[in-house]
């Protein structure tokens, strides 16, 4: 079930509620059952789903008790239930922390981390294009010395996007490249410097050590975890492992245009209490969507 299917199912469940002539416990339970089944099928963590059910129920009960005292009608009940569901879905994707926002006129260093193949290099270029289009002088640094061809890939992407880049074919120390690249762009008064780092096939201590060393060398204003939505439930464990060693302040979820169910990435937000800032929705340079919890849930519900 892809994210669009989840939306359609949630929408359908809420429609059932709109059509019900009476909103009683049976109707609310049926709605919650369908909602939870849809979320579970989309790979959202079981504990989160169960918490959502409890919270919606408690909120609805509280509001209905209050409405009853004030002589409430059925239409109000529907609104109450709909609002509780909406708010709790928003809470699922909103950890309540504000991500760092690059500002023009100062040097903002961003560092991307993640597993190999997650979409780091692609996403770094997309991000660079995003900031450059907003009038910020943006540069890319390739500190991925692990994957053969990583620098060529970044160079190709950057050239296509007309973004200045820094890297080396001979230097094998990613920390040295990251430091030199950031220093160069800093001296040239770049507003945004994006450092692309190595991945590995899975989360490994070597990778984490490297990330910590690069981070210490370039002191990023924001470290971004690039998370592939198509890995499903594994997204939660992976993001936890990264958070424990290479603390990141934002998440970008990639490959949401494919067959990804998206629920794993949603669970990663709760597990790491870290906000999603963008969604990757394709292989092209402009396939990057800004993420905000409320509009995302509104769009999901259709
Ligand atoms: P890295 O190893 O983490 O640097 O990953 P890459 O940037 O090389 O991306 C791995 C593959 O995923 C490439 O084929 C990208 O074109 C593809 N990719 C990255 N982001 C997206 C996305 O949002 N949607 C789709 N469909 N493909 C993506």
Automatic annotation (TrEMBL):
Please give the organism.
Answer: Kwoniella europaea PYCC6329
What is this protein's name? Signal recognition particle 54 kDa protein
UniProt domain SRP54-type proteins GTP-binding: residue ranges: 275-288
Q: What does this gene product do?
A: Signal-recognition-particle (SRP) assembly has a crucial role in targeting secretory proteins to the rough endoplasmic reticulum (ER) membrane. SRP is required for the cotranslational protein translocation for ER import and preferentially recognizes strongly hydrophobic signal sequences. It is involved in targeting the nascent chain-ribosome (RNC) complex to the ER and is proposed to participate in the arrest of nascent chain elongation during membrane targeting. SRP54 binds to the signal sequence of presecretory protein when they emerge from the ribosomes.
What Gene Ontology terms describe where this protein resides (cellular component)?
Answer: cytosol; endoplasmic reticulum; signal recognition particle, endoplasmic reticulum targeting
Span within the full-length protein is 1 to 302 of 579
Which superkingdom does the taxonomy of this entry point to? Eukaryota
GO BP terms, alphabetized: SRP-dependent cotranslational protein targeting to membrane, translocation
Q: Which key words tag this protein in UniProt?
A: Cytoplasm, Endoplasmic reticulum, GTP-binding, Hydrolase, Nucleotide-binding, Ribonucleoprotein, RNA-binding, Signal recognition particle
Reaction(s) catalysed by this chain's protein: GTP + H2O = GDP + phosphate + H(+)
The entry sums up its family as follows: Belongs to the GTP-binding SRP family. SRP54 subfamily.
């Amino acid at each position: 079930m892809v994210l669009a299917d989840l939306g359609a199912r949630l929408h359908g469940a809420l429609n059932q509620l709109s059509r019900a002539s009476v909103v009683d416990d049976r109707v609310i339970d049926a709605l919650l059952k369908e909602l939870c089944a849809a979320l579970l099928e989309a790979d959202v963590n079981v504990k989160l789903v169960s918490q959502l059910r409890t919270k919606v129920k408690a909120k609805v009960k509280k509001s209905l008790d209050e409405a009853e005292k004030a002589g409430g009608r059925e239409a109000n009940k529907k609104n109450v239930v709909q609002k509780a569901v909406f708010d709790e879905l928003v809470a699922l994707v909103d950890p309540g922390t504000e991500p760092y926002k690059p500002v023009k006129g100062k040097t903002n260093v961003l560092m991307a981390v993640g597993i190999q193949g997650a979409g780091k290099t692609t996403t770094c270029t997309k991000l660079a294009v995003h900031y450059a289009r907003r009038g910020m002088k943006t540069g890319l640094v390739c500190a991925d010395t692990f994957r053969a061809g990583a620098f060529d890939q970044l160079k190709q992407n950057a050239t296509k996007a007309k973004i200045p880049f820094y890297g080396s074919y001979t230097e094998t120390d990613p920390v040295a490249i990251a430091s030199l690249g950031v220093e160069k762009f800093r001296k040239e008064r770049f507003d945004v410097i994006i450092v692309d780092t190595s991945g590995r096939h899975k989360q490994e201590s070597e990778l984490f050590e490297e990330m910590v060393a690069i981070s210490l060398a370039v002191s990023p204003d924001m470290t971004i975890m690039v998370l592939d939505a198509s890995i499903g439930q594994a997204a939660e464990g992976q993001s936890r492992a990264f958070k424990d060693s290479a603390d990141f302040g934002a998440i970008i979820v990639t490959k949401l245009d494919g067959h990804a169910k998206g629920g794993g990435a949603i669970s990663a937000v709760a597990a790491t209490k870290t906000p999603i800032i963008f969604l990757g929705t394709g292989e092209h340079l402009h396939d990057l969507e800004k993420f905000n919890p409320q509009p995302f849930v509104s769009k999901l519900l259709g």
